[in-house]
Specification:
The structure is a homodimer of 339-residue chains.
Chain A (H helix, E strand, L loop, with lengths): L4 H8 L3 H8 L7 H14 L5 H8 L4 E7 L8 H16 L3 E7 L3 H12 L5 E5 L6 H9 L3 E4 L10 E4 L1 H14 L4 E6 L5 H17 L5 E6 L4 H13 L6 E4 L2 H13 L9 E3 L5 H5 L6 E3 L2 H16 L8 E4 L2 E3 L10
Parallel strand pairs in A: 1-2, 1-3, 3-4, 4-5, 5-11, 6-7, 6-8, 8-9
Antiparallel strand pairs in A: 10-12
The structure holds a DNA duplex (30 and 30 nucleotides).
DNA sequence: TTCGAGTATGAGACCGCTCCCAGAGATCTT
DNA sequence: AAGATCTCTGGGAGCGGTCTCATACTCGAA
């Protein structure tokens, strides 16, 4: 069996009280006693039982992360990198990370509820926020600690981190307009997702500025996947709108769109320009390499986790709201408008 | 405060013993009493405290999964899908999933140790096995429950699931040889990884059969990433060997290799054929779509988790060792040898 | 000298749950 | 009718920690 406080106490003829406090470095324990206890603990190979400690402290030292996924073939590079960021920060702060995947909706909400009510986690990281996000509404109602990556519509009285996607998209449009593009199509994620709204907002704002110069915009909704981007681009290409540039709201869809365009014999970056958003590793190695907006997703993961840890520790965060400024990554998927 | 057994007991004038057993449906509790207890529990909104139960049961109902990652930019589609498989199965079986990411080596081993010794998990899922795997050696030594995705060299006295990668690669080589290819280059992962060995073994076996027909093989080691595949393909293309086909040991490297080949103006599937392995979603949408070997990674995740759960429950699994037979997915990245 | 403050340790409750064991009735056996 | 058996419930220990409170001792100040 595992070594307990009692074993140490017995060995050195002290009580568990003393041992416990010595090991936790309380300053009401004599230095020699501390020394004695520590040596005995080392010798016996003592390791505290996390469960017992958690029960007593009424804390789980665990952070929950429930990834919203559609269907089993879930392979979003976004999440794996975000996960790594959150996980490493959590580990560094002494927290465990409890991960689940649930499709948005009923099951997802149940997962949040049961994790809270059965005392499995101390706080949640929310990812990929939705406009009127039921997760955030619920956590707020329960007064349960959380931090999110992404904002919501309405009151923002919780710690969050987000990228200024609107500004990122504005930069994309400005870049494209500088290359002469006026007829631009945009492939959007479901508009219930907040980041989709921000990105679309940036696109619209950019196009508004182009209105006097004949700017035209067509927005088509898709589903964030590569396949979705492919299909949607095909729809766009069949359409009479015939854009000179396609602005996809994430890299995965942009890469899917590239396939569709290339399949029709067009050259990406010459006949049609394509942009993405996120700067996933794949974007650098697509063919041609994808012009996109950088989103440091690993760092965002660590920062979101840090925000939550601050809340859990009861520290007053200097900054509860972090908005990162994006940067445009110019590669070869865009070129001047063909005449 | 949360409702406890004691609250229910007090309310109906019974003891916590009775309440506990009624809720756990022990058959030594009278049916009316059970009814009474259940109603009171519902009324008060009782939810058992997981921590307390776990402490008492000396079980954590938690499965550990430590993903081996190199560097922070960790975005392997492989892992996210595997994770989803494991996670969903764990949830279905009433287990929590504790996830960490660690670079292989010292830190990784410490994570295993501390998770075991501080009683955080009941068992581990090991992924991406290595030839003489320190994780498996350790868990075996500690007699700690685990199941793995992947085999090791030597004794296989633990539950595992694996794909018959050797056979998969054999099929690839046969397919390529059928198209007339004889000078074949292979981009390999680090050979310390078991699946690399199996895949290379299959490649060699296939080439051995081609020896009488002038088959020539060049193997170059890379690192599983898209970037690695790109760089390694460039090295290959600079080499005098000039292969007519490149067999990459995973899809990510294959896609990277495609970029390199295309950058030099070659047409993939005509001038040079390329194959991958894994059939990640991206493979379908690369340009051209990638010929590869299917590996149902989501299902593998669920099955690995199931193996572990059987061990944890003390059930005797009918099958402790599962080898899946792969299937070749033919797409457009291969063609007949150019003369 | 005596009291108060400070220091170091012990005793024991408690977190919320499970489970062993005892015991009270009810029913059955001979 | 008396003991044996069965059914149901209660008492209480214990999982492995933490924390409050009490206590014994030392020491300097009034």
């Amino acid at each position: 069996m595992a070594v307990t406080l009692k074993d140490i106490a017995k060995k050195i003829g002290k009580t568990t009280t003393t041992v416990s406090r010595a090991l936790n470095d309380y300053d009401d324990i004599g230095p020699e006693t501390k020394e004695l206890v520590r040596n005995a603990a080392d010798e016996l190979g003592y390791i505290p039982n996390t469960l017992a400690r958690r029960l007593q402290k009424r804390r789980t030292d665990t952070i929950g992360l429930i990834l919203p996924t559609f269907g089993p073939r879930f392979s979003d590079p976004f999440f794996s990198e975000f996960l790594a960021g959150v996980g490493n920060k959590a580990a560094a702060g002494g927290y465990d990370l409890l991960v689940s995947t649930r499709p948005p909706g009923e099951q997802e909400m149940q997962a949040y509820q049961s994790n809270i009510l059965s005392h499995r986690v101390d706080g949640f990281i929310i990812v990929r926020t939705r406009a009127d996000d039921p997760r955030i509404n619920y956590l707020r109602k329960m007064n349960f600690p959380f931090a999110s990556f992404g904002r919501v519509e309405g009151v923002l009285d919780f710690p969050y981190i987000d990228e200024d996607s609107a500004n990122g998209m504005l930069r994309v449009i400005e870049y494209l307009s500088g290359l002469g593009h006026r007829r631009i199509a945009c492939i959007s994620p479901p508009l219930e997702l907040m980041f989709a709204r921000h990105r679309i907002k940036g696109v619209k704002e950019g196009m508004d500025r182009l209105r006097s110069q004949g700017g035209e915009l067509l927005i088509v909704e898709s589903d964030l996947t590569q396949r979705g981007g492919y299909q949607t681009a095909n729809i766009l290409l069949d359409n009479s709108f015939s854009p000179t540039a396609i602005v996809a709201c994430n890299d995965l869809m942009a890469i899917g769109a590239m396939s569709a365009v290339q399949e029709r014999g067009f050259v990406v970056g010459k006949d049609i320009s394509i942009t993405g958003f996120d700067n996933i590793p794949m974007a650098e190695h697509s063919h041609p390499p994808l012009t996109t907006v950088n989103q440091p997703i690993y760092q965002i993961g660590t920062m979101a986790c840090e925000l939550l840890i601050q809340v859990l520790r009861g520290e007053v965060a200097e900054k509860q709201e972090i908005i990162l400024q994006p940067s445009l990554i110019v590669r070869q998927s865009c070129g001047p408008t063909p005449e």
